[in-house]
Write a structure and sequence with these properties.
Layout (H helix, E strand, L loop, with lengths): L2 H19 L5 E6 L4 E8 L20 E4 L8 E8 L4 E8 L5 E5 L6
Parallel strand pairs: 1-6
Antiparallel strand pairs: 1-3, 2-4, 4-5
Length: 112
């Protein structure tokens, strides 16, 4: 392989590595609460405000999952809050999304 080809291949591989690290907070959210989840909110653990409802008008049925995709965030540690159809609140705090591929919500995450 000539030098130009080698430089191109090396640059291409570096670019792929950069893209692979981008949006490292992306994860799959799994509902194992026994109830449909109607709202899902995220915020950085050190943040004050919950973001918009990720599910929007959609409902995540028990046993179903959804892929959550991030863009433009540097934070790794996040809090998750969800509501079921009966307005019960579920919380998971201090989730390192940079080191997690899947987050499963269960009835044990229900707040009293």
């Amino acid at each position: 392989m000539n030098r130009k080809g080698l430089a191109f291949a090396l640059g291409f591989l570096i670019g792929l590595a950069f893209l692979a690290q981008a949006d490292t907070q992306d994860f799959t959210f799994v509902n194992n609460t026994g109830q449909p989840i109607v709202n899902l909110f995220l915020k950085p653990t050190d943040g004050k405000d919950w973001g918009e409802d990720i599910l929007g008008v959609d409902v995540l049925e028990d046993g179903d999952s959804v892929s959550i995709t991030f863009a433009g965030y540097d934070d790794c540690v996040w809090d998750l809050m969800a509501n079921d159809k009966d307005e019960n609140v579920y919380m998971i705090e201090d989730v390192d999304l940079c080191g997690t591929l899947s987050v499963t919500l269960t009835k044990d995450n229900k707040t009293e």
